[in-house]
Structure formats: structure tokens, C-alpha cells
Amino acid sequence: MNNNLKEEIIRTSGVNVLKCMRCGKCSGTCPSYGEMEYHPHQFVYMVEKGEIDKLMDSPSIYKCLSCFACVERCPRGVEPAKIVEAVRLAATRRQGGNHLTAEEIPCIVDDDTPGQLLVSAFRKYKK
Amino acid sequence: MQKIGVFVCHCGTNIAGTVDVKAVAEALGKEPGVVFSAEYPYMCSEAGQNLIKNAIKDYGLTGIVVCSCSPRMHEATFRKTAAAAGLNSYMVEIANIREQCSWIHKDIKVATEKAIVLGRTAIAKVALNTPLTASSSPVVKRALVIGGGIAGIQTALDIADAGYEVDIVEKEPTIGGKMAQIDKTFPTLDCAACILTPKMVDCAQNEKIHIYSYSEVESVKGFVGNFTVSIKKKARYVDETKCTGCGLCTEKCPMKKTPNLFNLGLDNRSAIYIPFAQAIPKVATIDADYCNMLKNGKCGVCSKVCAAGAIDYKQKDQIIEEKYGAIVVATGFNPIKLDGYDEFAYNESPDVVTSLELERLMNAAGPNGGTLLRPSDKTHPKTIVFVQCVGSRDTTDCGKPYCSKICCMYTAKHAMLIRDKYPDTEVYVFYIDVRTPGKNFDEFYRRAVEEYGVHYIKGMVGKVMPQPDGKLLVRAADLIMNEQVMINADMVVLAAAIEPDKTARPLATMLTASMDTNDFFTEAHPKLRPVESPTAGIFLSGVCQGPKDIPETVAQASAAAAKVIGLLAKDKLLSNPCVAHSDENLCNGCSSCERVCPYGAISYVDKEFRMPDRTTKIRRVASVNAAVCQGCGACTVACPSGAMDLSGFSNKQIMAEVDAICR
Amino acid sequence: MTFSYYPGCTLKTKAKELDGYARRSAEALGITLDELADWQCCGGVYTTAKDEIATKLSSVRALMSAKKEGNALVTLCSACHNVIKQTKHELDTNDDMNLRASNYMGCNAREAADTEVIHYLEMLRDVVGFDKIKEKVVNPLTGRKIAAYYGCLLLRPGKTMQFDNPENPKIIEDFIRAIGATPVIYPMRNECCGGYITVKDAEAAKKNSTAVHESAAGFGADCIITACPLCRYNLIKAESPIPVIYFTELLAEALGVK
Lengths: 127, 663, 258
Description:
Largest sheet of chain C: 4 strands, parallel
Largest sheet of chain B: 5 strands, parallel
CATH topology of the largest domain in chain B: FAD/NAD(P)-binding domain
Number of helices of chain B: 19
Radius of gyration of chain C: 18 Å
Helix content of chain B: 25-40%
Mean pLDDT of chain B: 96
Radius of gyration of chain B: 31 Å
Number of domains of chain B: 5
CATH class of the largest domain in chain C: Mainly Alpha
Oligomer: heterotrimer
Strand content of chain B: 15-25%
Distance between the termini of chain C: 22 Å
Number of strands of chain B: 32
Strand order of the largest sheet of chain C: 2-1-3-4
Number of domains of chain C: 2
Order of helices and strands of chain C: EHEHEHHEHHEHHEHEHEH
CATH superfamily of the largest domain in chain B: FAD/NAD(P)-binding domain
CATH class of the largest domain in chain B: Alpha Beta
């Protein structure tokens, strides 16, 4: 239980996790579900429980596609993707928290790689 | 000079927990005109009332102020107390220091100060009160029931049983409502038609009951005991008195491609139709949107084949005016439109259906004669997925924030019936919670799981994806396995939320009956007066008041009938003496009050006035019908010359209250 | 009719054809696209965190310069459209964002939200009109079965984007009909292609993209069209059996300006 982190996540995401009725529709619709250790509904519940460290240390935070399907389909307006984003930001903002570095790029790009992809990835994975 | 008594109630700790009641009694005791002030734990108790009665007698009180709960709760109680001690009932004022003070404040100092202000305000008003006497009005011994579903049917039957005349107004061509569309009922699985249709026949055969089918309420005037209602009988282009219901016209009608609304558009019928075999009245109706004769003047087949000569293409809407002593609202519900839930592919695939559509698909009188076939290709579905809470408990714009209450049980019923009839068909139910409070309800749901092998999965469906081969790929969460599951289904059934019928909102305006934010009618008291509307003489029956299943609906329908019977049994009703009156000398005849009056209680009359020079002048002045006036006060605000005033709530009294607050 | 135009970085490099066909088609339709001077990269993705201000400033600047030009702002790349529209919405609804953006920029940032942001497709629908486009088509693509791929960015979050029904959109289908072809409706058209995740987990992205093109091809499409260079990249990387092209290319072809 980490109350400071919990408050930070709630503040930066702007999400009220208490609105969740635990139907699991977010996880029922998530295209990255299979890649994740913790799933969208667990993100919401674990933030409520204050288990932020576990989430920050999990690779799941880099698996969210920010596709917003969970946000669009949530019957309670909870916006799980915004929680994932806030946790990932908290992780990448830590010292040494970058998930992507410029050195990796030459191995990633090919002739067709759109600039948009690299800009987006740096926004998501690096502070 | 008034002699006023003040009585401060503790209401146990409800008030005394937050308000220093002793300080309030003491402070109010010092107000001008107050000769007695006391506090007591429960003023509404017999001992508390005796305290009031004794003080009235001992101190010769001319008015009393009770600082207690809302007047909606105990004003009537304390008025009776005053009357018993010989004080006019209208010399009583209530200062609401519970709902408007102790319950909403936490700080004792602030709450105490506010309670004193509220008490002081009531004292200022009671000092200007005058004794009022209620007059009485007769009761029309006839009731109106709006809506002919099971709720309206039961209410009408019970009222008629007590010997009173009752009319049912039903907007559809037949009574029966939603229950007539349902196949079987939970938790007993008896056939809905088998238990409903005898009641429909009872209605038709009961001498005391008159059914206005294919009719709607146009306007409502009057007040409890004496409503005047205009009913529009819509043109059905068939003379009800001549039609024998033989059905020959429906067979011969060439317009066979008319959507069958009774089967929710799942199949077609003819343009002239009888909704179903046991319809009451069993009379044909022409659908004007599809009838070639009415649209283009060509055809006339039904008229030619009708031996009774009942077809009348020139029939017009007809307005009927009737008087009633009581009105029961039984307008029922509909499943919500699912346009906001395209992730479930309802608009995309014919094999995604609502639960009510499934009722028709499984009904022996339905489009497939009771064989469950999927709509797209008429094959037997081998895998069926049920999705619960579609639009219920949903705080987004397209959903409803409440639990629709009936879906858990009817889904268990559907699942069980399918597994019983087609053991080869796999049935999955995705649920958030299974809610089964009711007699034999949980046992019923458990039977679906334990005896019929229905797969209940805790989780919600995220998306239904129609596949090129005609299957429906269902992506959902299994929260207990912590897995995302994919099911290749043949059919998906959505438990759509239910909402009040759309006609209820305009009706509520006509009846001046209040509604909540979801358009359910509000009851006079959520616990103690559940079948009465706050508007006198208007009663509530069935889902129009809130989601409920058939047994609950029937219970409430009978309760509403009991209340109606209690009203109709009275010969006279005491009316509210707090009504408007006009000072003819001040009235300038502008008609402002007449325009704002929602009850039509104000009319204008020409009156002779003696002028100072001894001539006579005829002026047009407002006149209030005290029997019709409900004392809402709209006219007193609208009157530009200050001629209109309300007994018991005079302009002078209101201003005295404002002054007391601002002091 | 003149609009300010925000092409975005990728349209200047790897997705030149998306931009080029859009400009030629606009001209043929009597629309002037006036490219904003000195626009900066939108950042590719919108960061939803409330305390992220600096990453949104380039969008605020774009909105502000369109306001100065007195034009509505037309976008073309789905990602740019999403970022700029969400930024506009944030300026409209979040006082803290307004205050902090104003402090960074030394002006009243709220004014930037006055700029109307419309996607090129919305311009075709609402300004030109699909009926008008139908009239101007010289080369109807009759017989072509085309799958519209919306992805996420044009549609979600639906309340902010106000683009179309996010679960059952029809704007690109209507566009396809306007140029004489037949739209193919398939359930994956509004599901994610895998997006930026391909940088770190190409396999995961591929799963998503494969599901999209399999669904489109399964329903008989002979081509997929999109407005997003990243969607196109992911679909092509996942070895789509049918061509994936920009919608503007088909528009230019139909209008005879390819």
C-alpha cells in the first residue's frame, strides 16, 4: 500500500477508481490483454488498493496500446487507459526509468518506418 | 394579540444530536407573542401531543409552532392535535428543523442558530394566520386506469370487484401489454399467456369495466374525486361494434409485408391485423402506414370480404370526455434502444437479439412456432451467449444508472428453457452480479447452473464480432479465471435495460404527478405510501413507478386498487382551504392569473361596482373556483396588481417570514 | 473555401502520397489548403496525464496560428488530428491546463480553443458533401470492394473526437460509396493496429494487425484504406494479403487527378 503514489496516480490520471463496478468489460475488450501480466480491470482495482509499486514494476504498463477501447466501452466512465498512462508516466519519470533509448533506434527502423512511430514511442516510453 | 406556543421536538437524536434543542426552545420563548415554549423527545408521541393539547388549554394559545420534521411527515398529525384541543387546525405551523437543518448540518452551533431562525420564521407566520375551514366536494364513483398491461388489468379487476365502474385506456389495439409477449414466467415456468389471457377475458366480460383500446389520454382537468379526462380513440378504420374478429380480412389483405410489431418486427403480418389470437378486444385494426386503400385509395379487399360490414375507411379519431374520481397510472415499460451499444453488433447482425425478442423467438405463437431458430438463416443455434446488464447500471449517456431488476431472473429462465429443450446447445451467461432476491429465485438460478449445466461466467462481454462464416465471435472477460475468453457463438442475447414507456412523461405533466430523473413516477412516500403519487387522486401501478417483475407488479396493482376503492367509498372529500382568492377592488382584469393557472380554476366575470359618485360601473374581474384551486400560488405571483392572494400563505405572511429570516 | 492545413511530420517524409493526393484532390474540389507556417510536430500521441503540459504546446501553437489566420484547421493524419483535437478539448475544459499553457506561451492559451479542428474526411462530408464528390467523380471505382480501416485515433475518445459513432462509424463507408466503390463492413475496422508498441514488441503489434487484415479480407475486401501512416505501416508489416493504401489516393484516382 503506497498512499503517496496512489494519490499521484489519481491526480495525474484524473480518474475516479471508485466508480468501477468491477464488470470487467475493459478487460473483455482489451486487444493487449494476452500480453499483460496485470489487466485493465486489475489496474483500476490495484490503484484503489494502493498497490502501485507492483504495477510500476510490471511490463504490463508498456503493453497498453492507448487504443481507448476500454475508455469508450466502460459503462461507468472509469477510463482505465488513463490509469495505465499515469502509472507508466510515474515509472518512466523515475531515474533510469526509460523504457526506450535512442541507441536502440537503428536496430528498429527500416525503410518504411514512419517518423510518427518513433515520436509516439518516445512519448510513451521515455522521459 | 396572538398567544403563541412553541414545541421543539428532539426526534430522539435525529434533531437533538445536531441541534441544541433546549437553546432553541429558550430563544424562541423570547419571541414576541410567544407565551409558552417547551422541548420534548418525541412530540408526535401520545405524551408529546398531550403536552401540546394541555398547553393550548392552559395558556389559551391562539396559534402553535412545532419545530420538528418535514410537514410532509407530521403536519396532519399536529393539525389533528390542535383541533382536538379546540384550536383551528390551520393555526398550526411546522418549522422543519430535521430535513432542512439537523440532517444536513454537522456543526451544532450552526445548526442551532439555523433552527432558531426557522422557528422564528414560523412564529412570524403563525402570528398572521387566520382560522380556515375546509369545504367538501363530492366524489365521482368511477376510476380510470391508464395502461392495459398486467398492472392495469389487475387494478381494474380489483376496483370492479368492489363494485365501482372502471375504464381502461390502452394505446395498443389490445390489452395484455408486455406479459402477452412473454413465453414463460419465472420462477415457476408457467405459460404467461395461460395465466394472463383469462384475466384479459375477465376484463372484457366484467360489466363494470370498459376498455378503450387503441386510445390515449389527451387531457386531464380537475382534482381528486372529480377529474375530467379527454380520451382520444384513434381511428382503427374498423367498427368495433360490428367486427366479429373472424380474421378473414387479415388473411385476404394483400399487404403482407407489414412488420409485425407484436413479434417486435421479427416477421411480417398484413396491414389489417389482430395482434394475437387471444387479443382483447378481438377486433381488427388497419395499420394506416401500410394500407394501400388508406394510402392510395386502391384495394378495398378487406371491406369486400367482411361479412359484418365493419370496415370503415373514413373513420376519424374520436374524443370522449369522462369524469373520474381517481386515476391509476399503469403505463409500463420498454427495453431501451440499443443504438449506443454497437460493440455488441445488435444493429449489424440479425442473430444478436434482445431478451424480449428471444421471448418471441421461443414462443409457440411467435415467428418460428416455438422452435428456436436463429433469425439470419433459420438454423438451430448450437452456442448461445447471454450478456447481462446491457445499459443497466450504466452511467454513460446511452445507459440507465439503475438495476433493471428482472434481467437476472429472465436470463436464468431463458438459459434453462433452452438447455431443457435443446440439450446439445451450449449456453453461456456473462454476469456482473447475479441478483436473485425473491421467493424461490436463487434456487431457480442455481437449478440453471446445477441441473441444466448453464455456464455462468463472471465478467462482461467487450465486443461481438460477426464473422464471414455467419458466426459471432464473442470477446469477453472471465474475471475468476483472470482470462480473456473468445466464444464462437451462433446467437447473442442482450439483456437490455428497461425504461418507462415514453408516453409517461407527457402524461405526468397532464396529471401534475412528479417523476424522478429516470422518468419513473415518484411515490408519495418511498416506504409508507408506495402506490400513491404525491398528487391527490393519482395512483401508481407497475413498472411506471420502478422496475419490478410480474408478482410484484400484481401486488402493487392490487394495492393501488385498494387505495382507489378507499377513495371511491367516500361520498365527500374535504378540500384544502388554502386556496386563492381575488380582491375584486384591486383586480384590473388582465387575465394573467387565468393564463398561469394549471388547474383551470380561474375564470373572469363581469361585476357591478358602486362608484363613489353613486354611479354603477361594470368591470371584468377574476373569480376563483375554490373547489378546483389546488393552492399552488402561481396566480399570486403572476398578478401585477396584488389582487390575488392565497389563504394560509398570504403575501403578508410570506413577507413576514422573509423579514424574520433577515432580522 | 480556404482552410489552414496541418500536414504533420510523417506526411512530409514517409507518407508524402497521403499529403500529395489530398492537396490535389482538394484543389479539384475547389478547396484551398493553406499550410500553417512554422508548424511543429504534434508528438504523435496525446498524453492524457493532467500534469503533462509542455508536450501539448505544439498543438496549442498550431491552434493559435490558425486562429490568427481566421481559418478552421484541417488535419489529415489520424494521429495529428487526435492530438490537436484532444488538446483543444483540454483547453476548453481544464482551467489548470489553460493557466499553465498561458504561462508557458505568454498569451491567453484559451483563445486557441476557438479554432475549429476538422479532419480532411469531415471536410469532405460536411463542407464539400459526398453528393458533390459523387458529381465530380470522373473515374468511378465501380466494382471495387474496399474496407475502411478507422483504427482508434479518429474515433476515440468518442466524446472528444465527435467524429462519428465510435462503434459503428460510417463516414469512410459513405466516402467509398461516393467514389463509386462498395464498402466492406467488418468488425475489426475500429480495433487497434498495434500502434507504437511495434517498436518494443513487433510480435504483439503483428497480432493486432493480422486480425484486422484477416477480418477485412475474410469479408471479401480487395483493398484496405486508412488515414494513418502508422496503421498502414503496421498492416503492411503484418503481411496483409490485400493492399493497404491511403484514402486520398483513391479520392485522387476517382477525381482523375492521380
